[in-house]
Every structure is written in C-alpha cells, then in structure tokens.
Amino acid sequence: MEASLKPSENRYLDGEYLATNPTWGEEDSAWKARMIQRLWNRSGLAVPGTVAEIGCGAGGILAALRASFPDSVRFEGFDIAPAAIQLAQQHAAARLAYHCEDLTKSGRNFDMLLCIDVFEHVENPFEFLRTIKSIAPLVVFNIPLEMHLAGILINHQLWTRRHYGHLHFYTAAVAFETLKECGYAIASHSYISRLMDLPRSKSEYLFWLPRKALSLFSPELSGRILGGTSLLVIAQRHES
Q1: Side-chain half-sphere exposure of 2, counting CA atoms within 13 A
Q2: Helix, strand, coil share of the chain (percent; to 5)
Q3: Which of 20, 62, 142, 193 has its CA 20 to 30 A from that of 233?
Q4: How many Å apart are CA 153 and CA 156, to the nearest integer?
Q5: Helix, strand, or coil here: 188?
Q6: Predicted local confidence at residue 1, as pLDDT
Q7: How many CB atoms neighbour CB 232 within 10 A?
Q8: How many CB atoms lie within 10 A of CB 81?
C-alpha cells in the first residue's frame, strides 16, 4: 500500500515527520482552539451538530473544542498517520473519537470540517480543496502565511519545507484567491499569531515588538513583511 503513496505522504507514515516533530504540534493546540472558538462566536453562525477534523495530528484541538462547545456537539478526528492517532487517542472521550483513516475516502459527512494547517502539506492543494467540499458545508481553515519578506531574505521557506513538510507557501491574498478558485465563499476571517500571543524562543521575543507594532497598523502587512502570522478562515462551499 505505502509503495503507491506519493512521497509527500510517506513522511507522515515512515517516521520522518515524527522524528522532527515528536509532539505533532500538540503544544499549540489549546491556543488554536481558542482562536477558532473566538472566530466562530464572532461569525454568528449556528452551532454545528457534528464536527470533523482532517489531519487532526495529536488531537488536541478537538479535545479543547469539545470542552468549550455545547454537549450536543460530536467530534471526530481523522489522520492518515498512525503515530499521530496513537498520540490523539489519549484525548478520546464521550462525543470525541479519532480514526486512522483518509477522511476524503470515507464517504462521511459532517456539519463542519476543520482543516487546520493542512493543505500546504499536500501535493495538489486545488484537488484537495475541491474534494473536501463534499464533506461539510462549512470549513474552518488555518493557513500559515509563510511567504513573507523576512523569510525570503533568510531562505526560511526551505527550512519549513524540510522540517514541517510544507510544500506550498501563501500570502493572505493568494490564500483567499485559492479558496475562491476552489469554490469557497469567505464567511469570516481573522489574522492570528501564536508568536505574538505566546512567544517561546529568543527570536520570537526579539521580533515580538516590531510584529506587534506593525500588526496594530495592519496584521496582513505585518505577516507579509515579518511573518509569524496565520490566516484563520470560516468558509462556506458554493452549492452547485
């Protein structure tokens, strides 16, 4: 089976990704969940009955959302990587289950889909984005805005490609255009930055003040020049 997979998918199955990311990003999960909850509350959309996450990784985002959404909401996480699902199972609980499965091939449908830091990893993002439209009428995307001036100057995109497996890099304008070209309408969005909210390293503290100052003028421009920003989007599919 694995012999037929694309090389970009193999890194999540053969231990390469786990070796460079042993926590599978779990340390940022609670913060991302808070950002999703905040944007959702601001959108005024009705609470979904069922929520799935594609590429759920270690499962922490769904676990945090389960604690903040009403008890009527059911959550399911999907990931093709056995190592990720093994980590995620520690969060399994009532109304929360995880599956080592390709959600795009499952035939399942949900009220809302989370696609958090995912489509920059896939070889054909256009095909992927059009495919997942059939899963849910609402999709929450988090898209790292990694095509920025500071990153280009130090060739940071190459490091990100090797360390995290990101194959595509976006500005906000290109991200919006990509979603629209794939049949999504933007219901709500916000610019978020873990590096500004929860700096951890010396370099993150060093750039905190210039990022913060520039973001007060324009968070999009701050991300385009200094990086450290993601685009969080609630998108609705266009019904054909």
Answers
A1: 11
A2: 45, 20, 35
A3: 20
A4: 8
A5: strand
A6: 28
A7: 20
A8: 23
State pLDDT tens for residues 25-79: 999 999 999 999 999 999 999 999 999 999 999 999 999 999 999 999 999 999 9
Do residues 171 and 120 touch, judged by C-beta distance below 8 A? no
* Predicted TM-score (pTM) above 0.85: yes
* Residue 120 amino acid letter: E
What residue type is 108 in one-letter code? R
Q: Order across the sheet with 138-144: list the strands.
A: 96-100, 74-79, 50-54, 112-116, 138-144, 230-237, 184-192
DSSP 119-166: TTSSS-HHHHHHHHTTT-SEEEEEEE----HHHHHTTHHHHHHHHH--
238: left (phi over 0), alpha (psi -120 to 50) or beta: beta
Q: Which helix (H) or strand (E) holds 79?
A: strand 74-79
Joined together, the tokens standing for residue 129 give: 């984005």
Token pair listed for 174:
């290109």
Both structure tokens of 39: 């944007």
With bands split at pLDDT 50, 70 and 90, how would you rate the model's confidence at 197? very high
